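Suppose a colleague, Dr. K., hands you the sequence of a protein chain of 324 amino acids and asks what its three-dimensional shape might be. Before reaching for any lab equipment, you can write down a predicted structure in token form. Begin with the sequence itself:
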Amino acid sequence: MGEYGKPPPGRKPGRRPGPEGFLTNRPFGDPPGGLPVLGGILGGGEPSRYSRSPDLWNRLFRGLGIPGRFAAFDLPREDLVADFARAVLELPGFLDLTVTNPYKGAAFRCLDRLSVPVEAEAAVMDLGRLNHLLPDPEGGRAIALNTDGRGMVLALRKRMPLEGSRVLLVGAGDAGASIGYELVREGAELFIADIVPEASRALAAALDRFRRPGQEVSSGGWNMIERIAPRRDLVVSAVSSSNPLPPEKIETLPPDTVLADARYGEAAEFAAAARRVGRPCVDGREMLVGQFRLAAQAMGEIHGRDPARLAALLGEIERSFLGA
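The predicted structure, expressed as tokens, is then:
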């Protein structure tokens, strides 16, 4: 892990805004608002309107008997990320700050401005993005994780072996970078397509240093998708809008082609198109559960929770959440 040190001695920060002004109560099973905030998801796209992370974490808090709640924080500006992260990480008993778009890079860049040293796992350092900050009070530190790509990998492993598989990854943004990074580390042959060809080339070049000898990482523009998809074992959509393949093209893919969409809910256009023609598709709900599971396990290790009990509870939460 990489480490970011404390601010220089004697540094006197200005007045820090607390989290209260950004706190949003929302549906999906939040506990009563009177409970203290012990976790939250931070984003700029109004996560209070769409995120299911509070549902997952609040189920976990209830299952472990933790008297607190996981909330959604709508942060209007990137320049507030550092002060906000510092404020919530100093809340008594705070367990997890989940970071979503568009602040994953900003959260990484503010690590040296937090009040405790931060240990960042390899994926955070390699990608320059994070999606979880977990305080470790006894260790006098915080842990930074990037579980985005591994969340998708956990879902995909239930469908297919990834080593040696041929993958078309559509989208070279934050989600695409994290998923591509983990797929390359799994040993997949990767073709990256993006509506901006320069973006897909840049991501392929960045991921090239993680590939194994003989492993291929290549790229192209949006016009390559329909040509490449029929020759791939897996097609992953990691775009924030639009659909890389219409239903009629999905229908012509080999029947054993696995399809995956990093989005969930109404935004998951690729998953919806696949299901309209009777093709199963891994969607962002499964990816989200994987991301959550990895962060929850890290939280359990930090706070000495019984691994067997935690694993059983996470299994129950996953089955209930995905079955809903």
